[in-house]
Amino acid sequence: MKSLAIIGAGIAGITLARQLQDITEVHIFEKSRGFGGRMATRQNGPYRFDHGAQFFTARSKQFQSLINDYVAKNQIAAWQPRVLTLDTQEKPFKREWFEPHYVAVPGMNNLCKVLAQELNVILETRVANIEAGEKGWLLKDSAGERLGQFDWVISTSPAPQADEILPECFAYKSKLSDVAFSPCFSLMLGFESTPKLNFDAAVVRNSVLGWIALNSSKQGRPPFFSLVVHSDNEWALSLIHI
Question: Which fold has domain 40-108+182-242?
């Protein structure tokens, strides 16, 4: 059987591995100590923060079919927060969500954990180099140690990271540097007391902030008051370029 190395244990890498595991031997390499990628969750004491993706929607029949079983098992739930738009130049107004917005339970990264069951995932292993070998592609870690030789390699990491490790013979390598990202900073706040808010989630306009979420309002989260605040994308981009 042919062998495949997938770089990244986020939703893309895990989903791809599930689809190919019956026809090839799949190894997933993840530089972090946990699953999730952009669907990241961090815990600090009694507080849990989804500091990456805040929710997801299911607009295709295929994706809805995929998540139905996990909804039935309470591993995915529809989040129904009180949503406002906050604007520094106008009065706040209520927003309506006209489709289900889902969260994984008890944290956003749990969906990747569940999907990765029975897959061969190697955590805390950073692929730093890919070389053409005699019988495929040789992967090495940041210490120069061999991680194995594979018939195929697929990177699901962000373009700048992929650009660092993919060999020059990769046909689209020059395109990776052209990929533009829309960055943001995440602020995670845990409170001993419970502030009174008139929203569970807020889209923020005309501010350095872009999003505020009462993370503890999501299903399956600890009852301790926790906020996740994302910066405005354009502001974050300008700050990075200073």
Answer: Polyamine Oxidase; Chain A, domain 2 (3.90.660)
